[in-house]
Amino acid sequence: MEYTVVEKRRRECGREKGWLAKKVGVARGTMTLILKGSSTPTLPVAIRIARILETTVEELWGHLVEEESRE
């Protein structure tokens, strides 16, 4: 199974989905969709996720910007 960048980072940090959802302030189901790549978070949520996982928004979702700019 191939993981999204944000899911890989969550696993590297050893954090559970429920813990991350609670820290970010979203429902666990919402966090699951974000981690699977089925949903793109709002900018404030993306920033909170990046800070909690000690990385940047660009590192977690930069590939989406690159894909969009090619279209």
From TrEMBL:
CDD domains referenced in this protein's UniProt entry, alphabetically: HTH_XRE (cd00093)
Ranges where the HTH cro/C1-type domain occurs: 20-60
Gene3D superfamilies xref list: lambda repressor-like DNA-binding domains
InterPro entries: Cro/C1-type_HTH, Lambda_DNA-bd_dom_sf
PROSITE patterns xref list: HTH_CROC1
Gene Ontology molecular-function annotations: DNA binding
Protein name: Helix-turn-helix domain-containing protein
Organism: Salibacterium salarium
UniProt lineage: Bacteria, Bacillati, Bacillota, Bacilli, Bacillales
